[in-house]
Amino acid sequence: MSLTIIEPPELEPVSLIAAKAYLRLDNDREDGLIESFIRTARKSLEAFTGRCLIKQMWRFTVNAGFAAAVSDFEYLA
Fold it and tell me: Please, what's the b/e burial string for 25-59 (b: 16 or more CB within 10 A of its CB; e: otherwise)?
């Protein structure tokens, strides 16, 4: 069995603008670094809680025996 991400989240739970306001930054020099911190924090929290914070599409693959076809499903926490 394996899980593979097909469509990652379109947005992060905290915007760059909100993070920069909280950090009291007004320049653009560290935007890439701040965005990577936001993304890493989301991924860490998702791994710790075992839940997705934002809508994502995953593929669940079973590699054993015969299985009946399963239609798409959506899990909302």
Answer: eeeeeeeeebeeebeeebeeeeeeeeeeeeeeeee
Beta-strand ranges (E) seen in 19-72 are 57-61
What is the distance between the alpha carbons of residues 39 and 16, in angstroms, rounded to a whole number?
Answer: 10
Question: Are the CB atoms for 38 and 12 separated by under 8 Å?
Answer: yes
In the chain, where are the structural domains located? 10-52
Q: What is the per-residue pLDDT across 12-31, written as a single tens digit (0 to 9) for each?
A: 999 999 999 999 999 999 99
pTM of the predicted model over 0.70: yes
Q: Comparing C-alpha atoms, which of 47, 55, 15 is closest to residue 34?
A: 15
